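worker-3 :: picked N-acetyltransferase domain-containing protein
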Amino acid sequence: MRTGRDNRTGLVDMMRGEELAFAFSPTMVEVTVREFDPNKDSEGVEAVERICEVGPSGKLSLFTDLHGDPICRVRNSPTFLMLVAEIGQETVGMIRGCIKTVTCGKKLHRHGSKQVPIYTKLAYILGLRVSPHHRRMGIGLKLVQRVEEWFRENGAEYAYMATEKDNVASVKLFTDKCGYSKFRTPSILVNPVFGHPLRTSSKVTIIRLAPNDAELLYRTKFATTEFFPRDVDSVLNNNLSLGTFLAVPRGSYRPDTWPGAPHFLADPPSSWALLSVWNCKDVFTLQVRGASRVKKTLAKTTRLLDRALPWLRLPSIPNLFQPFGFHFLYGLGGEGPQAQKMVRALCAFAHNLAKDRGCQVVATEVSSQEPLRCAIPHWKILSCEEDLWCMKRLGEDYSDGSVGDWTKSPPGFSIFVDPREF
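worker-3 :: tokens ->
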């Protein structure tokens, strides 16, 4: 089992030997920030996680169950760290960070007209939590500052985070106090898993790709997409990745006659699309809280009707008010005049896969300018039309010279959302 410590130097080594203590005004309470210790911190971290809602307060909110593994959301990243903040023996906050190499731009190959990716070392902040009873004490700020020190020690050139645009406290912390700039506004699209399977088009064939074929397609077609991970092979071969699926017009290819990715790339059909599926259900579960009794009753009624009249294929609302699992669709893309049709077929296929595996929703995250976005089925009430990504440049020496300052670059049509960080 990986600990994520192999590449850590500097700050982390110092933290192993000596805890870092800070005093905050106005209360002057001593807060200790140190590396997470699974042997003594797991219970306290999960207690804070259970009482911290995800998203702005005062609305329907999501709460997370980490299934006893506080580092589950970063465990599959190539390099990661988790810090905790405590007052006395009480855990009052935590933050997670990970580092990877991704595409930040593209340039012409020196021997031709082909576009090749420009890579940079990128850090990601996620899972920042501060107990509701200990907010406005500077704890969140200190956690961010300490994880940023670790990012710099490990050579990260940029750091970014994601939050809802309406989460005023989070946005202010990062933009006003930590020097981050608003960068991208992708959409999180969520679709319920109904009590009945969805029909897929008879004019579309769906082929499950071997990881090596999937990797070749992604590297050939999507390596210049913003945020594309250079270690995409690690993602595709992870146990949580349930497969990559290619949709093609019926009659062009069949699963039993699939010739492999090189042949496909040499002579692709007029239209095609692909996506990969990540199993979040086995990592953590979510629960919606704050719904009225009327809304819960309405949702239950739709499920009862769907169960009693399955031939009508009524759109039922799954039980999201109890802990539920979900699948995340990543690496979605395609080409050709019928690409949207192919995407719809893939999404129906992914829905049925999630139903068979006991999930309640399927989710994906795409650029707000993604050409295939309109083909992705989703319920607006469950989705986040504008997720907010904020970014910060961490140092002075960079590998992205031809891009300039990535934080000031205009958005492209697509982004690659790494499922290891969702």
